[in-house]
Write a structure and sequence with these properties.
Blueprint: E1 13-17, H1 46-58, E2 63-67, H2 77-85, E3 92-97, H3 102-112, E4 116-120, H4 126-133, H5 138-150, E5 157-162, H6 171-181, E6 184-189, H7 207-218, E7 222-223, E8 233-236, E9 242-246, E10 259-262, E11 267-269, E12 278-279, H8 281-285, H9 290-302, H10 308-313, H11 324-329, H12 335-338
Parallel strand pairs: 1-2, 1-10, 2-3, 3-4, 4-5, 5-6, 6-9
Antiparallel strand pairs: 7-8, 8-9, 10-11, 11-12
Length: 340
């Protein structure tokens, strides 16, 4: 059964953060070395995640993406994948990973029934990767991508956050790399989400600018027309290569946003920019039945009016959403807690 919010958007897409921890420190997400982590005992068990996914599936969710933090840090993740892959109503089960641990885990995830992988890859240059992430593990990410190819695993995507002065000279190289590896590259505009304390508008490379740069090299680019509510606008180059742009900052897609987010400790957020969420762990652990959970999930969704990125766009003086002091007090405001 479909439930729609105040803007007629269905509840269809659930992003599940399985851990808030990460083995990288990307400048645009976790620029600090130390963070306040969620208490381990608060993390949902795989059985609890599975039970919540059943509840959401009853309410119309058919797409699930595992994310984090770094989801591959969650011990025994293939077991969760197996639980979720066994649900026929979840017709799309994907993961977003930084790829560092992918080479060693890809086969187990594939065999557990994970449908698709998206690897975040912002640069092809090891030194730049080190500067951007504070870790020297670029080669392992590329090995992870190769392992996905070796398995013949279809549907690989490579997501690159484009930051002016950091990696914006690599757009064409990344497209060429995607072509070589059979992956669709998607450029993401730098967002001023929680965690992105170094964000400023002048570091954002807009969709318009990305298109102009790519067109300068490849010639005329045509949009690919599709009906999906996926955040990426897709484009095709004269040689047939397809790439995407997620223009969350300069041309947000809130109007068709069917996504909500579950944190590793069971908080449910209706928008990446939402300041507050709904605790599902409490009622679940107190023994609430699936129907009882539905009886407050449904009205919460029906009241949803979030248009976070569109509201940010309307601001004249735009600075990072949350300042570091506030983030330290409430880790739930962090992108790495909420899952991107
Ligand atoms: N650690 C995993 C990874 O990096 O793929 C999954 C979690 S990460 C928060 C999910 C996605 O959010 C990544 O593709 C990352 O590049 C993106 N992201 C993080 N901070 C961002 C920002 N400030 N603007 C745009 N995208 C961002
Ligand atoms: Fe980077 Fe993802 Fe870790 Fe954030 S959660 S620091 S984007 S690898
Ligand atoms: Fe959806 Fe919020 Fe992102 Fe808009 S800002 S697309 S409503 S998650």
């Amino acid at each position: 059964m479909t439930h729609v919010d105040t803007l007629g958007r269905p509840l269809r897409n659930l992003r599940i953060s399985v851990t808030d921890r990460c083995n990288l420190r990307c400048q645009y997400c976790m620029p600090e070395e130390e963070y306040v982590w969620l208490p381990r005992e608060d993390l949902l068990t795989f059985e609890e995640v599975s039970a919540l996914v059943d509840v959401f599936a009853d309410l119309g969710v058919d797409k699930v993406r595992l994310t984090g933090g770094e989801p591959l840090l969650r011990r025994d993740l293939p077991r969760l994948v197996r639980l979720l892959a066994a649900k026929p109503r979840i017709r799309d089960l994907a993961i977003t990973t930084n790829g560092v641990l992918l080479a060693e885990q890809a086969r187990a995830l594939y065999e557990a029934g994970l449908h698709r992988v998206t690897v975040s890859l912002d640069t092809l240059r090891p030194e730049r990767f080190k500067a951007l992430t504070r870790r020297d593990t670029h080669a392992r990410v590329l090995e992870g991508i190769q392992e996905v190819q070796r398995l013949g695993w279809k549907g690989l995507k490579l997501d690159s956050v484009v930051v002016r002065g950091t990696n914006d000279d690599e757009l064409l190289d990344l497209i060429a790399y995607g072509k070589r590896t059979g992956a669709e590259v998607r450029f993401i505009e730098y967002m001023d989400v929680g965690g992105a304390t170094l964000w400023s508008m002048d570091k954002v490379i807009s969709r318009t600018e990305i298109l102009a740069r790519v067109e300068g090299r490849y010639g005329k680019i045509e949009p690919v027309i599709d009906e999906s509510t996926a955040p990426a606008d897709r484009y095709i180059l004269p040689d047939g290569t397809i790439f995407g742009i997620i223009s969350s900052t300069t041309a947000p897609f809130c109007r068709s946003c069917d996504r909500s987010r579950l944190t590793a400790d069971g908080m449910w957020y209706l928008c990446l920019y939402a300041k507050t969420g709904t605790d599902l762990r409490g009622p679940l652990r107190a023994g609430a039945s699936p129907d009882a959970l539905k009886s407050f999930i449904v009205p919460t969704w029906q009241r949803r009016a979030d248009r976070g990125a569109e509201e940010r766009l309307a601001l004249v003086d735009r600075t990072p959403l949350v300042q570091i002091g506030e983030l330290k007090k409430d880790p739930h405001l962090e992108m790495h807690t909420r899952g991107g």
